[in-house]
Amino acid sequence: MSIKSFQRYEKKFILDKNQYDMLIPKLLEYMNPDKYCKDGQNYSIFNIYYDTKHSDVIRHSISKPFYKEKLRLRSYTIPKNINDKVFLELKKKINGIVNKRRISLTLEEAYKFLKFGYRPVSTDYLNNQVINEIQYYLSKNKVTPTVYIGYSRKAFFCKNDPDFRLTFDSHITARRNDLHLESGLYGYDILGENNYLMEVKILGAIPVWFTKILSELKIYNTHYSKYGNEFMAHCLNNQNNNLKGEEIIC
Predict the structure, then answer these.
(1) Mean per-residue pLDDT over the chain, rounded
(2) Does the pLDDT value for residue 5 go beyond 80?
(3) Pairing with 210, which of 2, 86, 95, 121 sits 20 to 30 Å away (CA)?
(4) 246 in a domain, yes or no?
């Protein structure tokens, strides 16, 4: 069982394929591919987000509050058995600063903790601190598996500043059934074909060279939440499928 904790700012941008194709060669002058992008290839990320019966977590999140938090179960491979490693993350955002607390567990430990409240056993002080935080969150929020979101990612680190990182997510796929990491990546596309979600992850200021490239390619900052956009698409789909024309509170 391992722990990871960090704070950072995140800025988001939506790129079309033309912008993406022009941006990548320019980035390579200043940045190196992430170590997980083996031979320049993308890697995959699979998530299950937890929410209440009435979607209180995501409702609060999209209202742009000063403080918000989300619980998700994450894997970088499709688990094959209950002993495969996964990550349980509590992601908090306070006035624009992202704080992520996470622990590495077996899939069995994670499912037992989340479904039945069986606390994972650890002799490590910091691990137990994170477990305490997640356990407290679960005691205050009656959450269950709500949506699966997976995507393909390409990532870069700045050569001169390892705290400056870029990620590009594409083929962002979601579903609200079969909420198991073992089931793999399938569902409906929530970003759109040939679109890319670029996230700037940084502890300090964005480099000047990067802002110049963004200006040159007319790439502008936007607001985008994978779970938030999935939720709004889910609500719209429910309304469109309401054959009786009754109002749906989503």
Answers:
(1) 91
(2) no
(3) 95
(4) no
Considering the domain boundaries, does residue 144 fall inside one?
yes
Give 124-130's long-range contacts (Cβ < 8 A, gap of 24+).
Answer: 124/1, 124/3, 126/3, 126/5, 127/1, 127/2, 127/3, 127/103, 130/3, 130/5, 130/90, 130/101, 130/102, 130/103
- Each residue of 35-51: pLDDT tens digit? 889 888 999 999 999 99
CA 84 to chain centre: 20
Six token digits for residue 14: 């939506």
3-state class of 218 per DSSP?
Answer: coil
| CATH code of the domain in which 158 resides | 3.20.100.30
The domain containing residue 100 runs over which residues?
A: 3-240
Residue 245, domain member (yes or no):
no
Average confidence (pLDDT) over 10-28: 96
Q: How confident is the model over 103-142, as pLDDT tens digits?
A: 999 999 999 999 999 999 988 888 899 999 999 999 999 9
User: Look-up: residue for tokens 């955002």?
Assistant: 93
Say if 249 falls within a structural domain: no
